């Protein structure tokens, strides 16, 4: 490959990365930030997403929608972080309390839990923003409705209604997956 062609390919690659960063970093920061509160860790995940984009780009992967692909990668990277953190925490707790490791979940158990967690996070991301916000604040962050109302300026009754619609949506969306796990 000539130097000119290599330079043109490098320039094209840099332009693709710059465009992806400029167009999607805000959305990805929001997706990652909803799940990872530590700013430094969230930035690490964002960098991992763009690094994976470069690998996929270099391999010539076609993207149906780049935004959707990047969000999926971000969600998977967040899940990976939680899995590693949870496994490490469970391991440390077990070793400290018992001195043994034999009680850890099997890899199949961990895989099924990760799949379920990913489906739940994906379903939450499908909620309308107002419903998602109240659901995440109440269920995942542990805020009560009065705190949420004070922070958002939305009445408690409206928040309760939004949460109800979110729960109904999630129940319907996750019913098939829940039924499958119950059969096992």
Structural features, described:
The protein folds into two domains: 77 residues, Rna Polymerase Sigma Factor, Chain: A; 78 residues, Orthogonal Bundle (Arc Repressor Mutant, subunit A), CATH 1.10.10.10. Helix 1 packs across helix 3 and helix 3 crosses helix 4. It is built from seven helices and no strands. It is 83% helix and 0% strand. The protein has 184 residues and is mainly α.
Summarize the topology.
Elements: H1 3-33, H2 39-58, H3 66-98, H4 107-126, H5 129-140, H6 145-152, H7 156-183
Helix pairs in contact: 1-2, 1-3, 2-3, 3-4, 4-7, 5-7
Strand-and-helix sequence, N→C?
HHHHHHH
Low-confidence stretches: 98-104
- Number of strand segments: 0
Number of domains: 2
Structure summary:
By secondary structure, the chain is mainly alpha-helical.
State the main characteristics:
Rna Polymerase Sigma Factor, Chain: A; Arc Repressor Mutant, subunit A; 184 residues; single chain; globular; mainly alpha; 2 domains; 0% strand
């Amino acid at each position: 490959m000539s130097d000119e062609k290599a330079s043109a390919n490098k320039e094209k690659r840099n332009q693709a990365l710059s465009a992806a960063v400029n167009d999607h970093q805000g959305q990805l920061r929001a997706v990652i930030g909803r799940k990872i509160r530590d700013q430094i860790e969230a930035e690490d995940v964002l960098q991992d997403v763009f690094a994976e984009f470069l690998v996929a780009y270099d391999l010539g992967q076609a993207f149906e929608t780049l935004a959707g692909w990047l969000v999926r990668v971000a969600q998977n990277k967040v899940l990976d972080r939680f899995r590693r953190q949870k496994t490490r925490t469970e391991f440390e707790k077990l070793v400290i309390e018992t001195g043994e490791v034999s009680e850890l979940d099997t890899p199949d158990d961990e895989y099924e839990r990760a799949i379920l967690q990913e489906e739940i996070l994906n379903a939450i991301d499908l909620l309308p923003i107002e419903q998602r916000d109240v659901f995440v604040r109440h269920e995942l962050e542990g805020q009560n409705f009065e705190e949420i109302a004070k922070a958002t300026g939305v009445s408690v009754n409206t928040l309760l209604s939004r949460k109800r619609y979110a729960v109904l949506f999630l129940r319907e969306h996750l019913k098939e997956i829940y039924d499958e796990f119950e059969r096992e």
